[in-house]
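Bug report

Summary: structure tokens for CGNR zinc finger domain-containing protein differ between web form and batch submission.
Environment: batch mode, default settings.
Steps: 1) Submit the sequence below via batch. 2) Compare with the web form result.

Sequence submitted:
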Amino acid sequence: MTDRFRSGAGRLCLDFVRTLRYRGTPAAVEELPDAAAWGAWIDAFGPFPSPVRPASADDARVAREAIHALLTGSVRAPERQRLNRFAALPVPSPSLTPSGELRWQAADPAAAMLALLARDALELVTSPEFARVRHCAGERCGALFLDTSRPGTRRWCSMETCGNQAKKSTYRAKATARG
């Protein structure tokens, strides 16, 4: 997997929502500006054996924002209708190769990926797991993640990035206060 896109949010739809990096901050970065970027995301996270080359990233960004609205409790009728439309698209189908490998295929891999993402989001918000979706406590992050820690008290999307930055900031503030 490439470092271009973040992973590890706990669900595919949560990793997808992170493609608007630093959401809600002045430093927000669009990671799906075009069809090539959307194809690269599918290649990194999707089930397809060969590279996917979608014609556009427009539907991907629309789906991402509808999923974000759903996950943050601000979904309105238009977003709900879009999610239902994406979820109704055909999903990838499995097949077994002559060598015994499982391969996934779809007539339109980009649309099939949107179906997987929408279905994952709908399943998440209707499951008990949804109570453990958190916003990262990192000041500049804005990411959502699934808290799978036993006590359910995880604060950062990534201890290596946001958690480490927060601890460094706290340490520096204490050092400055001491002297």
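Above is the batch result. After comparison, the two runs are identical; trailing whitespace caused the diff. The two ends are 44 Å apart (CA to CA). The chain has a mean pLDDT of 89.
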